[in-house]
Amino acid sequence: MSARSPFSPLSALALVLAGGALLVAMLWMIGAGVAAGDINDGGAHGGGRGLNGYGALYRLLEATGHETDYARDDNGLRRPGLLILTPPHWTQGADISRIVNIHRRYGPVLIITPKWMATDAGTDQPGVQGGWVRLGEARTPEWEGFLDDVGVGIAPAAAPITDAHGITAALPYPARVMAGTGRKLDPIVRDAGGRILAATYRGQNLALIFEPDLANNAGFTREENAQITLRLIDDLLPEGQRGVMFDLTLNGHARQPNLLTLAFTPPYLAATLALILAGVAVLWRAYARFGPPLAPARDIAFGKRALAENSAGLIARARRFHLLPAPYADAARGRIAAALGLAPHGDPAGIDAAIERALLARAPDLSYTAASAALRAARRPSEILRAARQLHTIERLLTR
Predict the structure, then answer these.
(1) In this structure, what are the phi and psi dihedrals at residue 318, rounded to the nearest 5 degrees?
(2) Degrees (nearest 5) of the Cα angle 136, 171, 87?
(3) Structural domain includes residue 27
(4) Which residue of 53, 74, 362, 367 is 20 to 30 Å from 386, comparing CA positions?
(5) How far apart are CA 332 and CA 26, in angstroms?
(6) What angle is formed at CA 312 by the lines to CA 311 and CA 314, rounded to 5 degrees?
């Protein structure tokens, strides 16, 4: 006997497979940083939705068919396409140089310099959303060790501000506009006074937007600024490429390596796949024998039938079939003699003759003596079974 399981095998298999899939998905999400939380923290980066952020630029590129993504580690920096860096004021120049050198062989780099010192707007006020900021002082960055031949300064802009295609910009704060200077700068956007607001750096596959209000959320309140920035990015992208990555490593959102990320990264991915296949094999084995184990049966069951089956099994295993015919014939003779009122322990020849006469009166075509002799002479199992059946038929006729 076995206890009945509350689940069918298919239901149990579905539960196990669903649980395994959810576990693998959870591990992958942890390793990939999907569950790392909202990056809209008021920072000036591609995930920021405040005035100083570049979330609008990210969504504009997405809407215009560009393949946008965030770069959170060195693997992300090595993807082909344009890499946009938005380093904060306090970034070390060596860190920017390292990232530019990593990505340079995979595509161009666009650096948007920071200007605003922003503070959290505070969600306790009506209508204020998370990630909003208040713009404070405008300040130039000091990235010692990176493009030391390029200088930046903040001053009022001289209208009009135009790009290389003749589009005129409309900056939200024209009294505080950042511009760059340097002999290796090729201007892309400049004002009427010749100040450079955006340029490419000669021989480096590198471009810089010195005035962040051309590309940030505050500047994108004017369509002209969005057009200038989008045209600048399209001009930087190599022909046939549409990938644009926004770096987040310099803005405090880098994804650190861990065991989970390593498990899904070559060459460790092979070992992970081997473990998954081994787990699938174990699950299949478990499914094949699903259910509680059967209760062990008794070696010798109760009852006459069980005793007869055990005895028959012992004889069959020992292959002593020749020991069966004579005892069975003697037992049949005794039962028939008792049914006919004969002395069971009398002369066997006399009993056989009396049984033969009684059978002749009931079934002249049968012979008890011949059936008994055939059974005693049988040696093979098929012969024994056939003769025993014949004798049993005679016994039933005489004992009714």
Answers:
(1) -80, -10
(2) 55
(3) no
(4) 362
(5) 76
(6) 65
- Is there a single domain that holds both residue 195 and residue 107? yes
Whether residue 333 lies inside any domain: the answer is yes
d(CA 23, CA 275): 14
* 61, 236 Cβ separation under 8 angstroms: no
- Residue 368 makes CB contacts below 8 A (sequence gap 6+) with 336, 352, 355, 356, 359, 391, 394
- Main-chain phi, psi angles of 336, to 5 degrees: -70, -40
Q: Chunk the chain into consecutive blocks of 10 residues (it has 400) and report each block's average pLDDT, rounded to whole numbers.
A: 61 78 74 64 88 94 94 89 95 94 93 92 76 89 92 94 92 94 95 95 93 94 94 92 93 74 76 86 74 64 72 75 83 84 80 84 85 86 86 85
Token code pair at residue 230: 């989008």
Q: What is the radius of gyration, based on Cα positions, of the chain? A: 48
Please give the single-letter amino acid code of residue 264. Answer: F
Question: In this structure, what token pair is assigned to residue 280?
Answer: 């699938």
Q: Cα–Cα distance between 373 and 369 in angstroms, integer?
A: 6
Q: Are residues 323 and 228 in the same domain?
A: no
Number of domains in the chain: 2
Q: 246 forms bridges with which residues in the sheet?
A: 70, 84
Residues 89 and 157 in one domain: yes
Q: Using the 8-state DSSP alphabet, how is residue 291 labeled?
A: S
Query: First CA to last CA across the chain, in angstroms?
Result: 40
Is there a contact between 208 and 96 (Cβ–Cβ < 8 Å)?
Answer: no
Q: What is the pTM of this model?
A: 0.62
